[in-house]
Amino acid sequence: MSMIIAPADYLLFGFFPTVIFSFLLPVIGVGLFTYIIARRIAPLVRANPDYRFDNIPERIKNLIVVWLGQVRQPRYMLAGVLHIIIFAGFLILSIRSTSLVIIGMSDGFVLPGLDGRLGTVYNVMKDYAATAVLVACIIAAYRRGIKKPARYAVPEKYGHDHTAEAVFVLGIIATLMISESMFEASAVAYNYQTLGNAHFPAIFSLAWIFAKILGFASLESLQGLHIIMYYVHDVTFFFFLCFLPLGKHFHVITSIFNVFFMRVKKGNIKPVKYGVSDEELDDLESFGVKKLEDFTWKHMLDFYSCADCGRCSDQCPANAAGRPLSPRFITIKARDLIFKNYPIKSGVIYKSDKLLVADIYTEDEIWSCTTCGACEQECPLGIEYIDKMVDLRRGMVDEGMVPQSLQKPLKALEKRGNPYGKMEKKRADWAKEKTFAETHTVKDLGKDVADTLYFVDSITSYDDNMQEIARRTSIILEKAGVDFGVLGKGEKDSGNEVLRFGEEMLYQELKARNTEAILESGVKRIVTADPHALNALKKDYTGLPPVKHISEIVAEKINSGVLTMKPCKNRDKVYVYHDPCYLGRHNSIYESPRQAMDAIAGLTRVELEKSRDRSFCCGGGGLMLFYEPEEETRMGVIRVNMAAEAGANVIVTACPFCLVNIQDAIKVAGKEDEMEALDFTQLIEEHLI
Amino acid sequence: MEILVCVKRVPDTAENEFELNSEGNDLDRDDLVYSVNEWDNYAVEEAIQIVDNLGGSITVVTVGDDEAEEVLRREMAMGANNGVLLSDDAFEGSDGRGIAAILKAEVEKGNYDLILTGAQADEGAGQVGGMLAAMLDYPYASLVNKIEPADGKIKVGREIEGGNQEMNEIELPCVLSIQTGINEPRYVGIRGIRKVAGVEIPVKGAGDLGVDAGSVGEAGAKTKRVDYFVPDLGDGAEMLEGSTDEIIEKLIEKLKAKGGL
Is the ipTM of this structure higher than 0.85? Predict the structure, then answer.
């Protein structure tokens, strides 16, 4: 009695050695794959530079946590767990698949190191991995093909539905799992029949089940099955390899690179062009992204890497409000264009004459983004959006394509240093309000000196309703014993949104003037109550003293006992804290405002379901207040409804723009009688002893 | 098509708070910021769009002092090909007719098919376009909100009482005064202005233009401003004061009291 004949030794029809297939398939497969990848790399080579070889330890950490650890996956529980199973299965089975290719040429091949005890352990693992992956594929196919969660839907304007591709690939993966298990099971069943004993696969694994089922099959059919399943696996494996770069499953290959090169700093904006200093900007021919090749190679890699999971758009406030923006399709439309302009079938490279914003995107689509960062926070693959939006806007600004609603504030910023066109000399007029001025004076650092600069920024300086924030902040700083002053007419808009709306040169000017005024004042610290100013000074400017948000100062001073809070004045109210994007997601300040609120005895505080790094943008700040978007509802209204659902009747925020948006939204939602919005500084100042 | 657009540097209404000077004969101009007259900006954008479609070139011209050059640069950053600054001490204090006479001299130096002006500028007289056309003996259309170029002629539109639209055919060369809203002017940033910072802008005086210095400027002005003031509040007019919220509250009270709400 004999053992089953392996594919390496089998003669088809008694004369044709199948080992020829075993040799040819990998040669053709790898050759084709290499060609496809070379074509895919072509646009990356022509793309703009991107410096991504810095912060290597941080990048390695991301690789371990975000890629290998899949830490972002369970934020969507079911899909996430299914993905983790398939991902882990792939990692484990990649070793088996590689061995199998060689086994087809040389029977009994074992990868070095896997011949002893480790090999036994590995074989058990891979049997269960294949089983788990198959089960996950079945559930995923049911979910994707039958249940169809809403976030996978493709609105008509964005092209065709992607369900077919998704289910097809799940089918391919299932085929790989089944053929691999059958290949093994047929040998086990054969050898058991002929030799009376065989090494059975791990109990209850797919291979084990197949071996049991095949236990009574004839020797000829087992032998046939063994050979057929081997080549089904081999063909599917190489087909899959070459299919991956053709669509959204490219991420199977690119994800490891994309995560390694992902954003490591938060809140900052990429330079206009890497390698070009601020002083050399005037020499650049063109600004921003106008054509496909103006994107950086990393941004192109992002386009390749998108798995079409829809999480970005599911979290995007602009998308939720019905604005013409869905981050997922920013990526997919660009990927489709790359595929069109760099076709696999020929070596030709096509050029589109149209600007991207006239070709695949629309101007409103690009202006719709509030740069809140919810999409980037969510993406399991580390795909970026903010820098792309800013680069596309830089391109539009350079072409003069700026909506009239934004041209006015931009011009006012250029002339007067604030978007309202108010006089510079009135910038500190908030401190002249009668009752405040009677008992408080605020130092003007144009004349006086102080340790700390309170950077007020435009909205708090000039908006009638927001000036209260400046006065409360001053009182808090006073009680906290901080020696502070303001720049008065020497202060210009921080330019956080000027930069993010693509008006680079205007931002450069504002930055230069603020930097000069701040350094001249000789302060050692900067504090602000405006998270957008905080972000600009901290993340965009360079060479300034350390910057803190007022909530950090309050939390510190409460902890050190300098500030003491009275018990809550409104015990019947339910408070909720709304995380401003530029305080939370972009600067990771989540706890200080909460700690400060919780220091008020008897204050009832609930949490929004979407809070901390999943906070939902209220509508955007800075220039976004002037932009007139196409939208079905306001982001602020959605946010107010979320707060109502959480059972809150006071929404506390720590950003003047959030306050404006939420106050307006409460009125629009008709909830004026049941809800109110409050700035953090007001709540704290009213409760200070 | 060769197009000349006449522009003016004016105090920016959006970014200024206007107060009278101590003599009471003009604005207090110490803290003012200036920009190109809004109507002129629409005229330049319209010229750019015409040239984009039909070819040709655009020249922007202004009568003013050295500082007026900044508005020429801004319009050149926008897309105008050439700029000409008409500047001479003799031009100072010109009335509308004087400005038109200076511009006429410049128009005659060139070979323009189309001359555009803004419908009006900061002083609200809206007179220069019409006078220029008359001096040149060119056909003229005012308050133009639509331009459809054709061969040798163009069609121009104007909004009529009640929102109706009128279209007229007009022969070239001609003068048109342009109304706001005719298009959406493109954005000009600091970068655009810096790009044209080095472009030479010729400055022409009375001698270069062949204008008799005595016929323009203060000496030649036949209209003179004799007073400049904020009108006294008449009966039934009242300024509401206070913060925005207070003003709104007072307004609502008043409307309620008069039965308006």
Answer: yes
